[in-house]
Amino acid sequence: MIDAISPLHSTQLSVAAFLKQSEPWRKSVLGAFCFSADAVENQMQADTNIPCMHVAMQRLDAGDSVCEVWHGSGQLTQGQSGAIHYCHDEDVLLGVIELPEAMFTADTDKTPLQQATESAYRQIFALLETLRYLYLFRCWNYMADINAHSFGLERYRQFNLGRQDAFLAHGRDVMGNVPAACALGFGQTGSVQGPPTTLTIAFLAGRVASHNIENPRQISAYQYPQQYGPRSPTFSRASLVRIGQNEVLFISGTASIVGHETLHPDNVVAQTRETIANIKAVLDEANRQSCLASQPKFDLASLYYTVYVRRPADLAQIRAELAHCVGDALTAVYLQADMCREDLLLEIEATAVHPWMHMPAQRD
User: Does the pTM of the predicted model rise above 0.85?
Assistant: First the structure.
């Protein structure tokens, strides 16, 4: 899925194919993000000895599952810290943490999801500080019933409270210097007294700072007005990081939002088009901010896309519009998920890698 010349790159295959890979192949694997609604495949993944995130999301486009496998370079080191399973090479650390909300009891100040989120991010930051991978590049956050209300507050807003509490507790910036991220919902518990739910987070971090990128068409998420919750989301629109001889671009979950408002709430084709316009604006910023010559520049055709779709019946229209916007080079996987706003019908995240070289010195 990403060019294999990169010291950090990923490949895409089914969960079953991933589990059949040989031991030599696994020696280069930092971790895997597996998406499947199949409980049998979920149980099979318990046999793996690498960081493996499972998300109970149905793949909509082809096959029953997809596994995004991230590869490192050189000698890899695995470890466990609290609830985090991690693996790292000299430059990059990948970690996965899953915390059942049932571990936490609601009190007058914090809900179980808020506590789980704060605990997860506190553990993440403690690990990064201990191992000296101080810069958080990218986070993937998944929770059940993201749009449901409990304890008087939408669950996504509870998550934002817990995430920011952890950032502040570790002296981390909550504006500007923040990682790329997404937050998606899966499953339905039916009620706040429903089956146990688990917060699942995967993350990539490194030893060099990334360039955090915003979208001029949008208000930065960390500056959203209070109508979107008591705490703003803590993420940047994208992160650009140089690892080895490559630039790696992580584009956060992106949707049909201009300024801070959702556009085209009932039109999935228009939302798809607006989302791609936002991704294009992020790419323009990434190319503008790069101080090194990168050939070719990032463009829509160079990205690998993960497309989260609220209503499976919309898939054909979304795929057709993406093919129109991106062209024949479109590479994407489609998953059923709930977005952080109920009026969003899809969300798209993307990743790409390009080689870079120093620009020649300028003469007077």
Answer: yes
